[in-house]
Amino acid sequence: MKDHVASRNCSTLEELKLQVDRYLHNYNHHRYQWERKKMTPVQYRNHLLSIA
Predict the structure, then answer these.
(1) Is residue 2 part of a domain?
(2) Which of 10, 27, 35, 44 would staple 39 via disulfide (CB 3.0–4.6 Å)?
(3) 1 occurs within a structural domain
(4) What CA–CA distance (Å, rounded) separates 26 from 20?
(5) What angle separates helix 13-29 from helix 41-51, to the nearest 10 degrees?
(6) How many independent structural domains does the chain possess?
């Protein structure tokens, strides 16, 4: 995460929080993962809940 969040460009704590929130949203909703059947973490969680 430290390579993807431009923390040095943030001048306030609120800007840093916004950058981290954007990164986490992108990671959880848009980044497909091979070890999770090419699903995002949110899709995989919903998939597991639907078959349980």
Answers:
(1) no
(2) 44
(3) no
(4) 10
(5) 50
(6) 1
Residue with token string 């943030």:
10
What whole-number distance in Å separates Cα of residue 52 and Cα of residue 33? 21
Structure tokens at 45: 């969680």
DSSP secondary structure of 21-39: HHHHHHHHHT--BGGGTTB
pLDDT in tens, the chain (52 residues): 878 888 888 899 999 999 999 999 999 999 998 988 899 999 999 999 999 8
Write down the pTM of the prediction. Answer: 0.74
Radius of gyration from C-alpha coordinates of the chain: 14
Are 44 and 27 in contact by the 8 Å Cβ rule? The answer is no
Q: Closest by alpha carbon to 33, among 47, 14, 20, 21?
A: 47
